[in-house]
Every structure is written in C-alpha cells, then in structure tokens.
Amino acid sequence: MESIPDKHTPVLVIDDDEGLLLSIKATLVSSGLPEPALLSDSRNALALVRKHSFQLILLDLMMPHLNGMEVLKKIKDEFPDPECVIVSASDEVGTAVQAMSLGASDYLVKPLNSEKLIALVNRILEKHTLRYELEQFGRKKLFSELKNPEAFADLVAEDEAMALVFHQVEAVAGTDYSVVINGESGTGKEMLARVIHRLSNRSTAPFYAVNMASFSKTIFEDEFFGHTKGAYTDAGSDRRGFFEVAHGGTLFLDEITELDPSLQAKLLRVLEDREFYPLGSRKTTKVDVRIISATNQNLEQLVKEKRFRQDLYYRLNVMRLELPPLKERKGDVPLLISHILKRLCATRNSRVEKFSNDAMEVLLNYDYPGNVRELENIIEHALIVCQDKIIERKHLPLALQGGVARPLPAARDEKVPIEKEIESTEKAVILDMLRKYHWNKGQTASALSINRTTLWRKMKKYNISF
User: Which run of H or of E encompasses 355?
Assistant: First the structure.
C-alpha cells in the first residue's frame, strides 16, 4: 500500500499493518491535522523520502524486509532534518534508547493513544513551523519592531545582528521547547537565557543557572536530584536538588558539553521520564522544568566524535540560537564602552568621564577574543590605572598598546570576589610598568598617573620589591 495525498503533506506513516495506517490517517484528519502519506512496504521508504519533503515520519518497529531501526538509520544518514518517531508494541527502555541514539525524536507504544498521537504530531509540526520562521528572519530586523523591548534592557546592543537574535528570542520564548544557545565565552549566553525565561509562561517560577563544568561524578546526583535524610553519612536532613527547586521554571545548563559522558545518560533519563529518584529515596519525584543549555563548542562535531550523546543532543537542541561574537558586531562597541564605563564609575565613585580619541581608536580596532566580558575587564583595568578624568591610551593594558604583558583574562571566575580580582589586576599592572621602566619608581609613577608615595604604598601592599 502506498497512498500520497494530492496536496503536499508533512507527515509520513510507515507500517506493514494497512488497517493501522488507515486508523492513524482517520485520527489525524478528524483532528484537523494534514492527511498523512501512508506506506506499508518499508523497502520503498527512502525513495519516498527523497521525493517528498516530510517533517515527521512515524515508523513501525517490527516490519518484514526492513525493520524500523534499519529504515530510521537509512533516513537519518541521508536526511537529518525530518523528525522520526518509532512505534512499537514493546515498551522496553533499551529499544527506546537505541532508537534515540539513531536519531529518533520520540517513541510511541501500541496500542496508540489518540490524544497522545495528536499532541505529538501537533508539537512536531508546530516546532518545524517555528524553525522555518526563525530561518526566514531577514538580516534587517529592527529593534523598534520588538514586542517586548524592555525585556532586553540588560543586553546593550544596536547592531542588526543582535536585533535578529532578539527577534528569535521573542519567537522561541513563548514555546516550551528546549533551547541551545551557542556562542563564544563572554557573549552573554546566560543573560539571553534569562530573557527567554522572563518572556515565557514560566516567568513567575524559578530560574536556576548551573555551570556543568563544576560537577564531578560523585556530586552530580546529589546536586541535581537531592537526597533524603540519612542517604549517606553527612546527610543530616532532606535536601532538594536543582531539578526540584526549579520545578515549574527554567534550568539553565551552562557549558553543557563539559558534562561527563557517564552523567549525560543520567540527565537524559530525567528529561525523557520527567521524574527522578532523590538519593536514598524509593519514591520518584515528578518534575516540570524547561531546559536552556549553552555552549561555546560545536555540538554536532562533538556528537560525530562520540564525545556527546546523540540522544541527549536531540533532546536539548530542539531550538538553537547563535549569539554573535563582539568582533562581528563592532557597531555595539562604542555603546558598550559608554554603558560599562558609566556603571563602573558609579560603583567605584570614579571621577573618570570618558576615553580619549586615541584610546577609543585602540578599543574600536581590537577584536575582543573574550567578547563583552573582556571589554569590561579592560575598562576596569583602565579605571584602576587612571587618576584623571580622561582615560588615555597609556592607561589601557599593555597588550592593547602593543607592549608585552600578561594575557588579559577572557572571562571572570565567578568564584573569586571582584575585589580580589581587581587587586590581582592592579598588582600585575604595577609589576608590568616597573619592569618596563627598569624599576625606576619616578618614571613608573608618572606612567601610572600616581605620585611616588602612592606607588610605594601599593608596592608595600602587594609585597612588591626589587
């Protein structure tokens, strides 16, 4: 049996049971969904997929000639975009895991529940519509066309590349899909995740940000799933994990690619089952959490290299946003400099008013490998050195002046207090200048725009001696 509707359809159903094919067709059409294409001979599946652009393919697991897994692999090897859902009479976890590893996006068990089937088809077709809309966004999107401009107040931007991202955020935020934010370190991925949360239906529920690189195998389950009193020696009371405290809200998983492969499976299980066992408990805890992940790496490449689970990739990467690096939106640099300088001067009671034209030229021509976070570090450095109202080129880090200096930090370590980091930077600047002027304190003090007494006091503070 092979039935192709006259009008293009986004759905293909493959099953050797012709009665079931007609039943699925009746269920979908009666609910207002497109009439599906039907195929009973799995050997013809790939030829049909080559001829038509399907968005969703429902595949029976047990079929003669080619079974569902074999058809799934052939389709995914050639056409990665269509969503494939395995349908089986067997409700075995191993089969589901195998299907997901081959690229299936979901797994249905016979006899099919009509409501679940309709909901799944609706969700997948809606997701493809949203993806298409995101791809159609032109490069000339305007900030003035944003529906919720106030939500982006913390993200300083006027470059059209960021306008595009903001419009994509507004389109994605209203859904409940998992999102991956891809971008270099320091581009503001967590800030963007917070905007998605604020614009979502979960905005009144918690938002939790978690750095996945900080979790070892021994503490992952305790931190994410929590524990009951007495679960282990030091468990003196019940403790809720990240999933439970974020229930109803959003969990932001930063540096998702840093999660150990053995822990990726545990994360996947919770995302699939929407429940987990706290350590020491025999009772499952239900969880309703939206996942937003972030990475500065190429997820697809990591999947190919077997360093990131393919099934977890499909669960997380329902929608993806690309955050451009600062070097690709140089139009935002002057605006960011003004914003950061104003904010830092207010917090430090600094009398600095602006950058000189010469210093601005240096900043505008720099590529910022550490992005916005590095730009903030540069301005903090200049405020430490400058004692006047105008920051000159000489107040910038030597790396920007063309001198020899320690590399600028591309990112702040959030575990280190800002005061300690500023002191560390100040000490490094003083040492660099002392070496540059061969430990001549008069010339060093002059270059730093401070007097000799202040230089002596700071050298004593930081235990700097010749």
Answer: strand 354-355
Buried b (16+ CB within 10 A) or exposed e, 125-164: bebbebbeebeeeeeebeeeebeeeebbeebbbebbbbbb
pTM of the model: 0.68
Do residues 308 and 257 touch, judged by C-beta distance below 8 A? yes
Shared domain for 145 and 199, answered yes or no, is yes
β partners of residue 88: 109
> How do residues 162-174 score in pLDDT, each as one tens digit?
888 998 899 899 8
| The dihedral formed by the CA atoms of 75, 77, 81 and 83, expressed in degrees to the nearest 10 | 50
The beta-strand segments (E) located in 387-460 are 390-391
Sign of CA dihedral 345, 348, 349, 355: negative
Sign of CA dihedral 369, 373, 375, 380: negative
Nearest-angstrom CA–CA distance, 55 and 33: 13
d(CA 224, CA 73): 33
Domain range for 393: 327-461
Q: Which two tokens stand for residue 280?
A: 């020491």
Domains: count for the chain = 3
